[in-house]
């Protein structure tokens, strides 16, 4: 999988941003410091990315924003992926009544108008810091993943090796976690990446709509602040382009990685290869 | 004669396929005795795997019952699997590619034996792998590092950890290299002799059945057509289908004549969605009578434990 250049570039971009989120704020300046001498200045040597209306350094803000955005993205992905696993895999594995119940739940979340609901919930919850935002995004964003995992678990759990271990007396819990789940790692990591990117985007959207606490710094709140001060009309492009570009880059990285993951974990391709092997063997025998 | 360990009594299995029904197994009766090997012979699609999976309780029978130690089985199969283990047709599919051989055997041992220490566990695992004639070094390999025959041995070792009474082998050698098939058959033979296992050996090739088994049961299009001790059945087949099957299988003793026959001689197996009425073999039977077209032949018990489903024998 790492052989594909698409995957490598995509992962490099993501790694860059993760590193930026972790170490950036240590290196970068104080994103909240107001430099009264430099208000709404274009990029210069002093302020490489220019400054905002309030004299804050855009570079420092972008770096701090990476932390805010990535934190929400990763948290949302963890929550969403976990729920997807806990709902999707047992549904596919057990089938029957368990499946019906869990599938109903999944479909419910699948058809729910997510954005309005997020708006309502976010408006209702007191204090919308990064953790609450991530929780909301994760809670509303797992259903697609659960459906994919359900389908995969369904076909896996009737495979011979699962049946064989069941005959040996392996309990369901271990069959799910030790026999079925390890085969889904490709899907799960793809899902996690999806969730992360989706989380970053959703956070930006929510911030833009003014739902996130404006006290926390993320790419979303930056764009929102720029928007509020009509940066576009006033030609302060350096204020909103860096965070926007970062979001776009993350999106690109996700697409690139997905191409690679698809090639690796698409079971149809793999199955096709296996059946070809079996068929050729049969022909050779005959 | 001792009591059967595992019995199928008049079991049928119908699968729903869209709006139609696939009558994969119809009215099958079979008994497995300790220390005896029964071969189930039939061409592809005759319902052998379906019957094996019924016996392994992967499906519930549409009608009829499975009996273990003389009692009809019901409820959760956990206890059942202490007595009955199935070896799958495809050794490439029945080991999880992500687990080493050791993991498979250790899990089986832990689930079925009280192991006191790591040393104890190791000892049992080594014992198992040696029973299937594999060296200890194979324990730390992944399935993809093994040949088909070696995998099938590991699968058998894992099943043996359970110390079952019955081993069901669903064409255990059909996907193996010709060169190692004989070894596998000898391994099965040894298990029967050492452990007194009751063995069901499923195959589509009558030559390997002839080599291994004590009794033979022939299936055609989901129905059993004939059964009995192997020498008698092979030397003097009573059912026209068995005759065809034996005639078309290569037999070194009968010389070249058989090369004239090949699988095509057996013709197309009938559809199981809409099987022929009466005897399912009647469209191809050279001696079919009127009654064959309308009524399914009942089981006719003959001498020496032989039986058949054919109007010819019933009429006599
Ligand atoms: N789960 C299922 N659903 C529907 N039809 C099935 C199912 N399993 C088996 N069948 C059908 O039942 C029939 C008997 O199949 P089975 O696998 O038992 O044959 P077999 O004797 O084992 O053949 P082979 O020698 O090719 O393994 C076939 O026509 C098959 O298509
Ligand atoms: S019952 Fe009739 S059709 Fe069937 S095998 Fe016997 S003679 Fe042939
Ligand atoms: Mg089969």
From TrEMBL, chain A:
SUPFAM superfamilies hit by this protein: MetI-like
InterPro entries with a match to the protein in the record: BP-dependent_transpt_permease, MetI-like, MetI-like_sf
Pfam families reported for this sequence: BPD_transp_1
Membrane topology recorded in Swiss-Prot or TrEMBL: Multi-pass membrane protein
Gene Ontology terms, MF aspect: dipeptide transmembrane transporter activity
Entry GO terms, CC: plasma membrane
UniProt keyword terms in alphabetical order: Cell membrane, Membrane, Transmembrane, Transmembrane helix, Transport
PANTHER family from the UniProt entry: D,D-DIPEPTIDE TRANSPORT SYSTEM PERMEASE PROTEIN DDPC-RELATED, OLIGOPEPTIDE TRANSPORT SYSTEM PERMEASE PROTEIN APPC
Protein name in UniProt: ABC transporter permease
Record organism: Kribbella sindirgiensis
Organism classification: Bacteria, Bacillati, Actinomycetota, Actinomycetes, Propionibacteriales
From TrEMBL, chain B:
ABC transporter domain ranges (all copies): 6-246
Keywords: ATP-binding, Nucleotide-binding, Transport
Domain of life: Bacteria
Example of a GO biological process term: transmembrane transport
GO molecular function: ATP binding; ATP hydrolysis activity
Region Disordered: start-end pairs: 248-268
InterPro entries in UniProt: AAA+_ATPase, ABC_transp_ATP-bind, ABC_transporter-like_ATP-bd, ABC_transporter-like_CS, Oligopep_ABC_C, P-loop_NTPase
PANTHER family xref list: ABC TRANSPORTER, ATP-BINDING PROTEIN, TRANSPORT ATP-BINDING PROTEIN
Protein name stated in the entry: ABC transporter ATP-binding protein
Lineage: Bacteria, Bacillati, Actinomycetota, Actinomycetes, Propionibacteriales
């Amino acid at each position: 999988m790492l052989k594909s250049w698409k995957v490598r570039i995509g992962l490099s971009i993501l790694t860059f941003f993760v590193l930026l989120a972790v170490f950036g704020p240590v290196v970068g300046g104080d994103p909240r410091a107001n430099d009264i001498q430099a208000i709404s200045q274009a990029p210069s040597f002093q302020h490489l990315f220019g400054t905002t209306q309030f004299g804050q350094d855009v570079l420092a803000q972008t770096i701090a924003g990476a932390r805010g955005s990535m934190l929400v993205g990763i948290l949302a992905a963890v929550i969403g992926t976990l729920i997807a696993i806990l709902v999707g895999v047992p549904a596919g594995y057990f089938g029957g009544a368990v499946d019906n119940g869990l599938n109903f739940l999944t479909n419910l979340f699948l058809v729910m108008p997510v954005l309005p609901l997020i708006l309502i919930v976010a408006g209702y919850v007191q204090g919308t810091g990064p953790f609450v935002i991530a929780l909301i995004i994760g809670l509303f964003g797992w259903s697609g993943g659960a459906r994919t995992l359900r389908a995969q678990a369904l076909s896996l759990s009737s495979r011979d090796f699962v049946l064989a271990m069941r005959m040996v007396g392996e309990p369901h819990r271990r069959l799910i976690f030790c026999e079925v789940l390890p085969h889904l790692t490709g899907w799960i990591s793809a899902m996690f990446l999806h969730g992360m990117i989706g989380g970053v985007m959703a956070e930006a959207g929510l911030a833009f709509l003014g739902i996130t606490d404006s006290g926390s710094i993320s790419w979303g709140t930056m764009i929102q602040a720029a928007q509020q001060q009509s940066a576009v009309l006033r030609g302060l492009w350096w204020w909103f382009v860096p965070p926007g570009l970062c979001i776009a880059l993350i999106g690109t990285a996700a697409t690139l990685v997905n191409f690679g993951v698809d090639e690796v974990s698409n079971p149809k391709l793999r199955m096709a290869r296996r059946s070809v092997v079996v068929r050729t063997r049969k022909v050779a025998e005959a | 004669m001792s009591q059967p360990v595992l019995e199928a009594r008049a079991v049928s299995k119908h699968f729903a396929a869209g709006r139609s029904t696939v009558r994969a197994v119809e009215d099958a009766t079979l008994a497995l005795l300790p220390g005896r090997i029964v071969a189930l012979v039939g061409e592809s699609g005759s319902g052998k795997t379906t019957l094996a999976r019924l016996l392994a309780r992967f499906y519930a029978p549409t009608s009829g019952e499975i009996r273990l130690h003389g009692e009809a089985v019901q409820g959760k199969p956990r206890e059942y699997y202490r007595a009955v283990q199935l070896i799958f047709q495809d050794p490439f599919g029945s080991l999880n590619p992500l687990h080493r051989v050791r993991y498979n055997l250790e899990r089986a041992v832990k689930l079925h034996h009280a192991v006191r220490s790591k040393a104890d566990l190791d000892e049992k695992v080594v014992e198992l792998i040696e029973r299937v004639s594999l060296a200890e070094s194979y324990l730390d390999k992944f399935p993809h590092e093994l040949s088909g025959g070696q995998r099938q041995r590991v699968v058998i070792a894992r099943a043996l950890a359970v110390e079952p009474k019955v081993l069901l082998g669903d064409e255990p050698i059909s996907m193996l290299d010709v060169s190692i098939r004989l070894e596998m058959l000898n391994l099965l033979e040894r298990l029967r002799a050492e452990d007194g296992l009751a063995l069901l050996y499923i195959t589509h090739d009558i030559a390997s059945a002839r080599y291994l088994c004590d009794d033979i049961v022939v299936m055609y299009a989901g129905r059993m057509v004939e059964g009995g001790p192997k020498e008698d059945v092979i030397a003097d087949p009573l059912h026209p289908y068995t005759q065809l099957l034996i005639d078309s299988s290569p037999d070194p003793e009968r010389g070249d004549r058989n090369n004239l026959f090949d699988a095509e001689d057996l013709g197309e197996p009938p559809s199981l969605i809409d099987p022929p009425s009466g005897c399912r073999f009647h469209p191809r039977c050279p001696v079919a009578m009127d009654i064959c077209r309308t009524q399914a032949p009942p089981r006719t018990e003959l001498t020496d434990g032989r039986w058949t489903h054919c109007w010819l024998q019933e009429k006599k």
